[in-house]
Design a protein that fits this description.
- By secondary structure, this protein is an alpha+beta fold.
- About 25% of the residues lie in helices and about 35% in strands.
- The chain is built from 2 helices and 5 strands.
- Strand 1 and strand 2 form a beta hairpin.
- The longest helix is centred in the last third of the chain and has 10 residues.
C-alpha cells in the first residue's frame, strides 16, 4: 500500500494498513513507528480526524505525510505525541 492509500484507508475507518513509513494502529496513524501523525474518533457515523501538526518541519518527508492528511483534518493541533 502506498502512503496516500494508507491515509485514505485511515480516514475512512480502515483498521489495518501500512506502507514503508506509515501504518494504522487502532485509531492512530503512525509515522516511522513512533510519531502519532493523526488520531480519529467516530461520532454520528463518521470519523473525525485530529492532525498533530507539531511534527510539521521535523523532516521534509514528515511534512509531506502531514500534508496528505491535512485535507481530511477536522481539528489541527500543534501536539507532537509519540508512541
Amino acid at each position: 500500500m502506498n502512503n496516500r492509500a494508507v491515509v485514505k484507508h485511515f480516514v475512512n475507518g480502515g483498521k489495518k494498513g501500512q506502507s514503508n513509513s506509515m501504518y494504522i494502529a487502532g485509531n492512530k496513524l503512525i509515522g516511522y513507528g513512533w510519531a502519532v501523525y493523526a488520531t480519529r474518533a467516530k461520532k454520528g457515523g463518521r470519523y473525525y480526524i485530529t492532525l498533530n501538526d507539531g511534527w510539521y518541519g521535523y523532516s521534509q518527508t514528515t511534512s509531506t505525510h502531514l500534508n496528505m492528511i491535512r485535507p481530511y483534518a477536522d481539528k489541527i493541533t500543534k501536539n507532537k505525541p509519540k508512541l
